[in-house]
Amino acid sequence: MLRARFQASARPLLRAPRAQRILKPFPTAVLQTRLSSAHAEETFEQFTDRYVAFFGGVQDIFELQRGLNNAFAYDLVPAPKVIEAALRAARRVNDFSTAVRIFEGIRQKVENNGQYEEYLKELKPVRDELGISTKEELWA
Fold first, then answer.
1. pLDDT score of 120
2. What is the pLDDT of residues 8-45, one digit of tens each?
3. Is rRNA-binding among the key words of this record (predicted)?
4. Which residues contact 80 (CB under 8 A, 6 or more apart)?
5. Pairwise CA distance, residues 1 & 45, whole Å
6. Does 82 have pLDDT greater than 60?
7. What is the DSSP string of 56-118?
């Protein structure tokens, strides 16, 4: 009896033959569409206008932070007009901490401390109007 069980388990399992798949060639037109970029190159002025308009319409914190992540993800430093629009949006949605963090983002993006000081100087009237301090001013 034990021997019969062992012999039964030693038999190879019978499997149904695999269904053969028919491979169809991928349409060339679709392939070319997927591989090519649909976006035209954007000038710095167009980039600036796009983000000024975006921050002008921001209505909540999530949208503000998403826009800031996208704007700072590019290999350039956003123009002061974009930063001003982002600061106004941060105050409009009552997010003081994000307004302060915008200046930290600028500090990380610029090449040297002189450029950061130029941004601070140019944005000083907006900072005074909105009551926004930098991290350095808060910890001094």
1. 95
2. 555 555 555 555 555 555 555 544 545 555 667 889 99
3. no
4. 119, 122, 123
5. 87
6. yes
7. HT--SHHHHHHHHHHHHHSSSPPPHHHHHHHHHHHHHTT-HHHHHHHHHHHHHHSSSHHHHHH
